[in-house]
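Recap slide: 4Fe-4S ferredoxin iron-sulfur binding domain-containing protein, sequence and predicted structure.
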Amino acid sequence: MSPGNNQDPLEALAALDTDPDRSEYDQELGKQVGIDAMRVANGELSEREFHEKYDKRLREEFGDDYTPAEVIADE
């Protein structure tokens, strides 16, 4: 969030729901990842928990274009 912007990030995300552009990718997954990324940034969710939660779905969504995060790549 920029210094002069006091809008709640979740409100900003909800505002994007009005008419999303068509995409070949799952936009609902993208929103869920974005919300949880904010939770990681706020210390509400660990980076490891985040990646464990989304690894399988991101592999399915992006196939060979997906590279797992270093935090789980060695497992």
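The chain has four helices and no strands.
The chain has a mean pLDDT of 81.
(End of recap.)
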